[in-house]
Design goal:
This protein is mainly α. It is built from 5 helices and 4 strands; from the N terminus they run αααβααβββ.
Length: 103
């Protein structure tokens, strides 16, 4: 790995830390609740997509807004994460974000 590759990896560290937490939540805690989300994808899957696309801060804000909307009085339905216009990263098989090799 070159120094330039290492420097390009630094901005995705917070994003991947949050994705690690979300992955653990989805594997350990989420199965205890079952399929209770009124929306598709589920709120935790939405959070993963939001953090992957928009980063840790904006992704967390989008996820919090989604969780606030997911309540017993909502009609639910399909609510996908809006893709980032200039997404310049690749995803690993486990959903973590890495710098794109195309640059």
């Amino acid at each position: 790995m070159h120094a330039q590759d290492l420097i390009r990896s630094i901005p995705v560290i917070p994003r991947n830390l949050v994705l690690g937490f979300l992955t653990a939540y989805r594997k350990v805690i989420s199965p205890m609740y079952g399929d209770v989300c009124a929306y598709y994808p589920s709120c935790s899957a939405y959070a993963v997509g939001a953090v992957q696309q928009h980063g840790a801060v904006k992704g967390a804000a989008l996820s919090a807004w989604r969780i606030l909307r997911c309540n017993p009085w909502t009609t639910g339905g399909v609510d996908d994460v809006r893709p980032h216009d200039h997404f310049r990263y690749d995803l690993t098989a486990h959903g973590f974000v890495v710098p794109s090799r195309k640059d």
